Amino acid sequence: MKHLRLALAVAGAVFTTTITTATADDWPSRPVRMVNTFAAGGTADMLTRVAADHLSSVFKQQFFVETRAGAAGTIGVKSVADSPPDGYNFALTNITHLVLAPISNPKLGYDPLRDLTNIAYVAGSPIMISVNAKTGVKSLAEFIEQGKRTDRGLTYSSSGVGSSGQLVAEAFAKVAGIKIEHVPYKGASQGIMDLVAGHIQVLFVDIGPSIELVRAGKAVALGITSAETAAAAAEVPPLAKVGVPGFDTTAWQMIVAPAKTPRPILEKLNSEINAIVRTEEISKQFVGLGLIPIGKGSLEELAAFVRSETTRWGKVIRDANLAGTQ
Prior knowledge:
Blueprint: H1 2-26, E1 32-36, H2 43-59, E2 63-67, H3 74-81, E3 89-94, H4 95-104, H5 112-115, E4 116-124, E5 127-132, H6 140-149, E6 154-157, H7 164-176, E7 180-182, H8 188-197, E8 202-206, H9 207-215, E9 219-224, E10 253-258, H10 263-277, H11 280-288, E11 292-293, H12 299-319
């Protein structure tokens, strides 16, 4: 009986290995789901569709986009975390899903470090700081000086509680030595309207939703949060070059799969997505969306990057008393 159990165990191991190898060799043999975690028509949706279209062409199999919006995108991410790790379920995620929301909301329903595997760092999305043009503020230095003279915190908007915009704003305020007060909205559009109307004093959102406001003369851009200039807003300087040395952060975008997805499949996708992002055609599309194309990093490097970002932003969240607030 003992020898029988051993033989069955070995056979089971061989069978499992054979299934995994066959799955990786034959993959993809049917349509592949790519989850867009935000509303249709937004930057995330367009980014997901660009990736899906090109992966469909490369692998000669349909990569279809499924929109699963809600709860700042975490509903869609959880749907993938709960999916079989068979190589047919992926999602475009960002720093909010993989770092910020899990720290601020322990009851989120998934653990990104345990339940997901990072496949490709697709792009970085700098946060742009802008103020109403009627304030008369023309530079970051003037804004910081105004903030230091104000007893009450300057009111600012982001895309919502726990969003990358809010966390960047809190980190910026600490470095700049000013007080700020968050006015959260469910998305960027309402905050933009209230900035123009003068109901809030400063806006912290991605370049895409706000750069046209600046170019229309309704707002003044004070800086972006990446260390390098973004091609989509080349006229807006990085904060590090206008008075906040060393400030460098972006709301990065990453494609993920359920944990335990076969490594050969992950490596195929990592290689292809990195190559796609670096092409001239795709780079131009990303720049048009206000993004900085990245397309680099091994699976191990991506895992290490997300762990380091979790440590970095965990401190910001705790210092701002936002842990467990959702």
